[in-house]
Amino acid sequence: MDNQAYPLPSSLFPLANALSNGIALHRDGQVLFANKAFSQLTGYAPDDLAKLDFWALFPPEVQAEARQRERLGPDDEPVPARYEALVQTRQGEARWVELSLSQQAVQGIATTLCILVDITDRKRAEEALRRVHTDLEAQVENRTAELQQAKASLEDDIARREGAELELLKRYAELTELNCLLHETQQQLVQSEKLASIGQLAAGVAHEINNPIGYVSSNIRSLQDYITRLFQVLDVYQATEAALPDAARARIDKIKHEADFDYLRDDIHELIRESAEGTERVRKIVQDLRDFSRSDTAQQWQAADLHMGLDSTLNIASNEIKYRADVVREYGAIPLVECLPSQLNQVFMNLFVNAAQSIPDGRRGTLSVRTGHAGEQVWIEVEDDGCGIPSETLDRIFDPFFTTKPVGKGTGLGLSLSYGIIQKHHGKITASSTPGSGTLFRITLPVHQPAEPGTPE
């Protein structure tokens, strides 16, 4: 193909051949000019291109639209067109090109200017990117499906566990309605709650302390008697000092002054008295501890002084209370009450400990204990000025296993067991509370237990 035969100024041939993009001019499919880059991209020599239909190089869908554009009338505004197409080179290699078409008048001849840009590498990169994107989407879909499956499995497991918990609570409620199992369960749980309140080793420690305290108390009484006798002897010696020689009296006076004899004589009685009071207090604490820890295995009802039980329990709980609150006793005149004393002591213990623990850190509170008598009933009130109980949970405080304390700080059985014990005594326990102001528990008990059916009066 002789470039000079093309309708293109000869001065533009070197410039066109120097371009890296393929450039060609055609008219009605006949190639009039093609630069070197166009020949290299298509694989056809210029002479071969002159013999080809230009559009045979491109897919049919590109041909149809491009030919339509070429048929625009002379008054129509030519619109440049740009296509991406897969071109088969003469060697059979498929290459992606970007084809730009525009109508041009060259030396008075209407032609179509074609510019080819090789975009094969870009298209391959895009295809690789699409494959990666597709793979990632597939992985995301697979992972999402796995997570959804795991979520469904977890939800099923949670539902099963919740169902099991509900079934457990239902079973517990059913068991508590059976009197024969209720008595046995309460005995075990009451004893367990005692151990949780005063410590696992309380009863054992009390037993171990009791014997040596007995020795010490007995020895202090004997020591007091011995010292009294010794002072009687000293009084006799002191009465005879006037008959002694002056030198002997001076020596005795010096020794008595150095030993501060008069102070020792007065203080030794006070020391023995304080020691006796201390051992008596220890003995009382040990006795309270033993009484509190003793299990009512025989379930023997007896007439008991509730004031004694309250004082004994306050003494046992003093370590829990004394750093948080001052105890105010407002006891009224009440008769002896037929009861199981140690079980009522357990109720008192739960109320005292709960009251002390409800008082916030940083301030000292007040724990008030009141008693009274009305007809054939006695009442006991335990009131604190702690943080109080919210109204939405107040109705649930006697439910088994319900607790507002942190995990590991409470079993949720204390008030439930207390409620059961009071019910067993044919009494009533109620609670009223104002959040931020404190809580009041009131227990009402009959003075005499009603006779069981079939029991002779």
TrEMBL record:
Q: Give an example GO molecular function.
A: phosphorelay sensor kinase activity
**Stretches of the chain forming a coiled coil according to its record:** 122-195
Task: Domain (PAC): give its ranges.
Answer: 81-131
Write down the chemical reaction(s) this protein catalyses: ATP + protein L-histidine = ADP + protein N-phospho-L-histidine
Q: Give one Pfam family.
A: HATPase_c
Domain Histidine kinase positions: 204-449
What is the uppermost EC class here? Answer: transferase
Please, which domain of life does this record's source organism belong to?
A: Bacteria
* Record domain PAS: where: 23-49
Key words, A-Z: Coiled coil, Phosphoprotein
Entry EC no(s): 2.7.13.3
The record's listing under PROSITE patterns reads: HIS_KIN (PS50109), PAC (PS50113), PAS (PS50112)
Q: What protein name is recorded for this chain? A: histidine kinase
Instruction: Please give the organism.
Output: Zoogloea ramigera
